[in-house]
Specification:
Order of helices and strands: HHHHH
Strand content: under 5%
Distance between the termini: 13 Å
Number of strands: 0
Length: 107
C-alpha cells in the first residue's frame, strides 16, 4: 500500500498541535510539510537559502521518494541530534522533531 505525500495547508508551528497527536498514526503530508518548511530551503535541487547555492552533501528532499531515501539520516541529524537544520536556522520546534521521530520509527 502506497501512501501519498503532499503538502497540506495547515500550521505546524504550535508545539502542542503535533505533541497532542502522539497517539495517532503519522501523516506523511505533515512530514512533508515539516521538511518543506524547515529543510528544503537548503536541501533542494534548487535551494533558496542565502548561503547554500547547492544542496549540502547532495542531499535533497524535493520529492516523497527523496524523504524515503534519507529517512534514517533525517532521524539521526534532526531527531537524535539537533544538528539540522544547521544552527536551527529555520527554527524547527521540539514538536516537529518528535513528530519526525515517530515517522522515522514507523516500519
Amino acid at each position: 500500500r502506497q501512501r501519498q505525500m503532499c503538502i497540506r495547508d495547515s500550521s505546524l508551528s504550535a508545539e502542542g498541535s503535533l505533541l497532542a497527536e502522539g497517539s495517532r498514526p503519522v501523516d506523511d503530508s505533515q512530514v512533508m510539510e515539516i521538511i518543506v518548511k524547515r529543510c528544503v530551503s537548503c536541501h533542494s535541487r534548487t535551494p533558496t537559502d542565502d548561503i547554500f547555492v547547492v544542496a549540502p552533501m547532495g542531499v535533497v528532499f524535493d520529492e516523497p521518494d527523496d524523504l524515503r531515501q534519507w529517512k534514517v539520516r533525517i532521524g539521526a541529524r534532526s531527531v537524535d541530534s539537533t544538528g539540522m537544520p544547521l544552527m536551527n536556522k529555520t527554527q524547527m520546534t521540539r514538536g516537529e522533531r518528535e513528530y519526525l521521530g515517530r515517522w522515522v520509527g514507523e516500519t
